[in-house]
Description:
With about 400 residues, the protein is an alpha+beta fold. Helices cover about 30% and strands about 30% of the residues. It contains 10 helices and 21 strands. The radius of gyration is 23 Å and the shape is globular. The two termini are about 25 Å apart. About 45% of the residues are buried.
Amino acid sequence: MSKVQSPPLTLICPDPTIHADEIYDLTGKVFSGGNEYYGWQKYCREYYFGNSHFDWSASTIGLMDGHIVTHWGVWNYAMRIGTARVKCGGIGAVATDGRYRSRGLMTFTGNENMAQMRRCGYDLSVLFGKHDFYHRYGYVRSWPGRHWSIGVSELPAEKPHAAPVLLEDPPRDAFDRLYNRYHAGLTGTAVRPTFRGPMLQWGHKHFAWPVRGRGAPTLDGYIICSFGGQDVNVAEFAGDTEQVLRALRLLADQNGCKKINFMCLHHDSDLCRRIRRVSCNCSTTYTRNGGEMVAMVNLESTMSKLTGELSRRLKHSELAAWRGELLIEDQTGKVLLKIDRGRVGLAKPAACRNAIRGGMHVVQLVVGTQDPFETIDAAGIKLTGEANRLLPVLFPDQHPMLSQRDHF
């Protein structure tokens, strides 16, 4: 990696055998409050860094005066975009030593890290960041925050086929397999495993049904939730929708709860479709510059992995017989899609009448942040030729969402 001369900041990838403890110390001082410092150290060693998908080769530290003064962490995971999977860098533990702040050091660190992720073969990057900061590195809104809730009386009153059992030591592998099965095709979700250590409670209880086997138990469904007042707060679930709703009704009744709240519920999930048929509530929060954000790292590699998904979308549209080319351009490069009656491939970029040309907001089209024409209008992306016909077919609203259990 590079050495920046002004300021005299040496930027390198961290070596876990040399830098791990110092990174835990730096991030502990920044992110843990007072008495939680030593708990943070344990958390980092056993879960956050040490037993996870943290990518040491793609992360960046800045060295000055013989020690680490900046850190930009990358967690490597596969993200779904429809049926496709792209290599996504989840950004976390972005920290500057308090004695070295207000010198612009993180600007150098962040810019170098974006280049390093590209060198390491990343396609996209996602983060959950503070307001008015990460746009300078090419990040834009990935999806709005959504909170869904439903009254217990709206849930089916029938008993579930198998009663949910409280697990003190939930089997991560079994949970991950079930999660992947029921979240296949949902844009924005992570392909598990991500974190690999024991499942942390975080104040939540883990219920599953039925639990069969000992060494490698098999589950039909699970719910991860907490109880507060008259609310059930659901962090995650997987399984047959009807059985999940029946299990939630049973758990709510047993704990005297009247309302179910869902955290990071995917709009296109079977369960969300189901509760929209009855009375429920959804509150949506849009953050102008902060919160859930996404950046394109490499347009060409991303689109190469999306050709199958784009072909699927075309084949099921009114443009199934369309033939021609479409040029897409953003701040990271250009790609030329060759389209032939529902089949999409990539070719060397060339002049093309049909084009989508924009900057960092093109990534919002790729992940389906919102209605594509809203993205076009808001970001000033230019469409020429028949791009306006292809746009809603190739890049529809995908309602992307990442489970809170996969946040970094």
